[in-house]
Structure formats: structure tokens, C-alpha cells
Design a protein that fits this description.
This protein has 475 residues and is an alpha+beta fold. The protein has helices at residues 2-10, 29-35, 39-42, 56-69, 115-137, 156-162, 166-169, 182-196, 243-289, 295-321, 333-345, 368-385, 416-419, 437-447; strands at 14-19, 24-27, 78-83, 89-101, 104-113, 141-146, 151-154, 206-211, 217-229, 232-241, 329-331, 353-359, 364-366, 390-399, 402-409, 451-455, 462-469.
């Protein structure tokens, strides 16, 4: 008995012995420290004194209820609130056991103070909420995977980046976010790192290619860090979309190339065009002296035709490489497109082409002469795609503050490999053509802060969409 008494007195948790009436008979030193009562102050009093006053009637009846019915109302490990002598309260975990002491029924209550544990849990919850908030509000995508490559965390930025909801990718292999051949090689990267410890990307970061849910790819900067959670390896990937940066770099490269092309075009204009004019005049003089209908006269006429074609090429090159700075005026796009269409349908080669203009767009501030050149190129391309026979439909409308013009032909469409290069200078699929028509139209449209795009609808044909900012409303 002395041994058990020593155990009870040395116990870290509070131990309270209660008789069948609910009165306290024993109160170990841990209970004294926890509740602030001495044994003399507490012996013989109802155990309800150890709970807040508002709950005493409820708790005091537990022992009597059990004695009368045998129903346990306090389960092992029940969380309650205790009350100290000074009136302060604290959270506790209560386990009650039944025993027979000196031939009478008694109850042994083991009480564990949960104050520190609950405070720690609250700190952990607060810390987790703080880090969750940081992860969810991050601009860059954050993805956490386990050692097998399965996704465990997929923040909102990653959802926007890849087009998946977190629930769709949770537990799936990270390789679903990669195009081939990286998809097939990814698991080998992890295995190699575990076997050799060689870091190919962990702690370094590099540019990779991401795969969206819709199958499109995009450039991304990936930084990977390693961590250990409960003894398990995890990898955190931070992904920054580089699409805008890559587009800017391409634009800068294009501008640099165009600047050099402009310098070259100026040299050509000075060194070639002027002498060509002289040569053309001389050939015309010579041709005028030759007998009409002779073979030599035909050759002279052909030379002049070739020189004119060369002059047109130089003219197109100059326009593309060094387009004039737009002189903006209020422009009615519908009227401008109709005027351009009327000029084209007057061409004998295009008499079997019908151009239908429908809809209405708000006025734009633009250079009408430059826009005529752009739309002329688009309409001529559509007519040539239909081999000079068919209908070109031009639709105008205004969406928010953007004016849109869609030029749709009924031709065979454009092959995917050609569509990728359609705006590349000097690229053409025509037997005769400079390959500068569409690139020039693109430069003119972009010089007006607009956009141009080409698509091939499933029903066939080609649709070129031009968007221009609407002119500000006059108040």
C-alpha cells in the first residue's frame, strides 16, 4: 500500500479519489498544484468544486447518476474545463475509473492539464493558417510532391497556371504537368537523386516547359527545394510563368532584326531603286525604237515588267522595314473597309470575288492610309486563297473598348505548319509573292496598338481577326 501511495504522490497528473456520493477523499500533490487547494480545504467537499460554478450542478450529479443507472456519462479522455481556487479556469482531460476502497465504491479521477497542449495546437494551427495563407496568396505556382512524385499541395496560382483544380491533381504524379519526353523521364530523375545524391535541379532552378490541361505548353521557371516532414522527404516546386518574358524577348529580337532590315532597305532604296528607274527609262526608249510586234520589242516589254516587279518588291520591303509613323484621325472602319473592297473588286483579276461587309464598329483613331494597306493585303490574300472565285465575308463589331474586324474567306484553309510561320517575313507558299503582305499588315496593326490573329475554323476557310482600340468617347 505504501508503494501505491508513493506512486500517486509522485504522479505528474492530478489524481483525485471520489466516493460514491461525489465527495473528495484523496487529493495528490499534483492536484494541489493544479487546483490551488490543500487537502484540508478540499477533503469531504463535492468534486463539483473543481469545475466552473455554472457547471457544478451538472457535473456533481454524474457520480449519483452512475450509481443509480450504471450509465457512464464521462468517457475516457473526455475534455472538460477545470476551476482553480482563485477562480481561473483551464482545459483538462479527464479519465475516471471505478474501484473498491475499504469495502466501499469509489471513483479515481486522473486529470491532465491541457493548457500547454492546446496552446501548442493553437500555435500550430495559427502557423499552418499563416503558411497556408502565404501559399494560397502567392503569385507564383507552388506544388509540393512526395518522394514518389505524387502531388500533395497545388496552390491557386498553380491552378490558374495549369488549368487544373487542386482536387483533380491531388495524389497524381507530377509528370501530368510535363510534356513528352520530360514526362517519361521525371521518375528517373527522382530515383537517380536518391541513389547518387546528384542535384540536377534541386536548389538550382532552371527553365522548363509546362503542360496545361488543354494540351498547350508554356515556358516556366522552376525552382525546387527539399524538405523533411515527419521523417518523409518532400519536394517543393515554385513555378513562374515566363510566357510574357519570352514574348518580350521575341519582340525585342524582332525589333532588332527590323532595325537592321530598315538600314538595309534604305541602302537598297538608294543604291538600287534609283538606278533601276534609269534602266527602266532607257529600256523604254530602246523598246520604242524597235519594230512593233517584233521579238526584240517583246523582250524589252518583259524587261520593263520585271523591273516594275522589282520596284514593287523594294516598295514592299521599305514599307515593312520602315513603316511611316501613323497620323491618327477619326476613322469609320466600316466605310474604310468598303472603300478598300470597292477598289479591289474593280481589278479585272478579281471580278469573280464578292466582298460582303456586315455589322458596325465604333470609330477608331488611326491612320486611314496605313489601315487601307493592311486591309488590302488581307482581302487580296483571301481572294488568292479562293483562286479568284468566291465570297469574302467581313464582319465588324465592338466588344467593350475594342473594335473587331473579321475577314473570312472560303478557301481551303492553312496547314498547321504554315500557320505557325504565317507572319514570318519573306515566308510564302505562293509561286509569286514577297512574303511581306501579312507581316506588313501585322506591323501596321500593332503600330495602332492593335492585335491580329489568324485561325482556320472547323467548317473550312481562313478567318483573320483584327482588333483596334476604339476612339475615346467625346464628353
Amino acid at each position: 500500500m505504501q508503494r501505491w501511495g508513493a506512486i500517486v504522490r509522485s504522479a505528474v497528473d492530478a489524481i483525485v479519489l471520489v466516493d460514491a456520493r461525489g465527495c473528495i477523499e484523496e487529493f495528490n500533490p499534483a492536484a494541489e498544484r493544479l487546483f490551488g487547494y490543500t487537502p484540508e480545504e478540499i477533503f469531504g467537499r463535492s468534486v463539483a468544486i473543481l469545475v466552473p460554478e455554472s457547471r457544478r450542478a451538472e457535473y456533481g450529479g454524474y457520480a449519483r447518476h452512475y450509481a443509480a443507472t450504471g450509465e457512464r456519462m464521462i468517457r475516457p479522455g473526455t475534455h472538460l474545463v477545470g476551476a482553480c481556487k482563485d477562480g481561473t479556469t483551464f482545459p483538462l482531460q479527464l479519465t475516471v475509473g471505478e474501484a473498491e476502497v475499504d469495502g466501499a465504491r469509489a471513483f479515481i479521477a486522473i486529470i491532465h492539464d491541457l493548457t500547454e497542449q492546446l496552446a501548442l495546437e493553437e500555435r500550430l494551427r495559427t502557423s499552418e493558417a499563416r503558411w497556408r495563407s502565404v501559399i494560397e496568396s502567392a503569385v507564383d505556382g507552388i506544388v509540393v510532391i512526395d518522394a514518389s512524385g505524387r502531388i500533395e499541395v497545388f496552390n491557386p496560382a498553380a491552378e490558374r497556371l495549369f488549368g487544373y483544380a487542386e482536387a483533380e491533381v491531388y495524389g497524381r504524379n507530377i509528370s501530368i504537368l510535363m510534356p513528352s519526353p520530360y514526362r517519361e523521364e521525371h521518375d528517373g530523375y527522382i530515383s537517380r537523386y536518391f541513389e547518387t545524391g546528384e542535384k540536377r535541379i534541386i536548389g538550382i532552378g532552371r527553365e522548363v516547359t509546362g503542360l496545361r490541361r488543354d494540351g498547350t505548353t508554356f515556358p516556366v521557371r522552376l525552382s525546387v527545394g527539399e524538405m523533411h516532414v515527419n521523417g518523409e522527404r518532400k519536394f517543393t516546386g515554385i513555378l513562374a510563368d515566363l510566357s510574357a518574358r519570352v514574348r518580350m524577348e521575341e519582340r525585342l529580337r524582332e525589333q532588332t532584326s527590323l532595325a537592321r532590315l530598315g538600314e538595309m532597305a534604305a541602302v537598297i532604296a538608294h543604291e538600287v531603286k534609283n538606278p533601276l528607274a534609269g534602266i527602266r527609262g532607257a529600256i523604254q526608249v530602246i523598246g520604242g525604237r524597235l519594230p512593233s510586234g517584233s521579238k526584240d520589242a517583246e523582250i524589252a516589254t518583259e524587261i520593263v515588267t520585271r523591273i516594275d516587279a522589282l520596284n514593287e518588291l523594294i516598295k514592299d520591303l521599305l514599307l515593312f522595314a520602315r513603316p511611316p509613323v501613323p497620323r491618327p484621325l477619326p476613322v469609320d472602319l466600316g466605310e474604310l473597309v468598303r472603300t478598300t473592297a470597292d477598289l479591289l473588286t474593280g481589278d479585272p483579276a478579281l471580278t469573280r470575288v464578292a466582298i460582303q461587309v456586315e455589322g458596325h464598329a465604333a470609330p477608331v483613331m488611326a491612320d486611314p492610309e496605313l489601315l487601307k494597306i493592311a486591309f488590302q493585303n488581307l482581302l487580296v490574300n483571301g481572294a488568292q486563297a479562293m483562286h479568284g472565285h468566291g465570297t469574302i465575308r467581313v464582319t465588324l463589331d465592338t466588344i467593350e473598348s475594342r473594335c473587331r474586324v473579321v475577314v473570312a474567306d472560303a478557301g481551303p484553309g492553312i496547314a498547321a505548319d504554315v500557320l505557325e510561320r504565317i507572319f514570318t517575313p519573306f515566308f510564302t507558299t505562293k509561286a509569286r509573292g514577297t512574303g511581306l503582305g501579312l507581316p506588313t499588315a501585322k506591323r501596321i496593326v500593332e503600330a495602332h496598338d492593335g492585335r491580329i490573329a489568324i485561325a482556320c475554323p472547323p467548317g473550312g476557310g481562313t478567318a483573320v481577326t483584327v482588333e483596334l482600340p476604339a476612339a475615346p468617347a467625346i464628353v
